[in-house]
Amino acid sequence: MENQTSLLRSRLEKLRTEEPRLRARDQATRLGISEAELISLGIGKDVIRLGGDFKELLQEVKKMGYVMALTRNDNVVHERKGVYDNLTFYPGGHNMGVAVNPDIDLRLFMNEWVYALAVIMRRGKAGDLHGLQFYNAYGEAVHKIYATPESDLAGWASIVEKFRTDQEPIVIEDRTRPAAKAEKPDEEIDIKAFQQAWLDLKDTHQFFGMLRKFGLTRTQALRLAPEGLVTPVDKLSVEFVLNTAAEREVPIMCFVHSSGCVQIHSGPVKNLKWMGDWFNILDPKFNLHLDTSAISTAFVVRKPTTDGIVTSLELFTEEGEMITYFFGARKPGTPELESWTDILEELATSSLMASTK
């Protein structure tokens, strides 16, 4: 094991010398290991392995004060600054929790949180960056927390001291997540009952239960939706939607998920910028980095609720994996902002007109 670890460390050092700008996820891919295993190669230097109850650990993050929360999947990175507060964890096998704050707004699926590492990233003149990183059983990043210049590093140190565990590098034998179940053939679905269930929705959160009940993938549900409730739009419609929201000062909600966390931004967006294929939001408290080359399909989706229709823009990969989705900022019990509805209905109308030409 030690020989294997030494070999990996040597290969990593060589790779970083040859390609210093290569990100950790890409370094791991090059070495044929997971990101968790890659980062843990720094144990004994700038990485400390943590253990114990990660729910308890998250309750301690408040001691760090103002931090940056990061959740990503393969195609989008969501970064939000704020304070970890108001965490609630629910009993039961699903092991779920929430952090509900104006800034740090998370939905937590703790069964996916398997490994934790405290890291110090040496950045030369930019100074050291202290963080906490969490990974699932396959070594994929679930959530990361980084200190900001306003953070209390004594809080970070106290977390490390309390949750420090055996300092062995992470080794994962099986890094391959089981393939998703094949999509059920349309003819095996009671489409009429499904469409009625959609029309009978009272809350957007009921949508996920409806998919489970009828055994549908999300993109299949959008394809079989009741007439007039889903409109396919151009895959780069996100640029129009966010630019228009910025110009009209319409606050949005942006959701990004990993396997174990959904991270939400609620508020305005202002500074939008293209960098190659990446479309970015670069605001003081909120950054989004979206790889538009991964977007295969995009939809305007309408869901009934007791507060009226709620409208979203949803982006998917070619494999039907959710990338990210956007709503107008709203609280339960209040109708959707008309200004947000207007943006998405303008998009949907122009898309329908284009498709009939």
Automatic annotation (TrEMBL):
Transmembrane segments: none annotated. InterPro entries: Heme_Transport_Util_sf, HemS/ChuX_dom. Pfam families: HemS. SUPFAM superfamilies: Heme iron utilization protein-like. Residues 32-163, 216-347 form the Haemin-degrading HemS/ChuX domain. GO terms for biological process: iron ion transport. This is Hemin-degrading factor. It comes from Neolewinella aurantiaca.
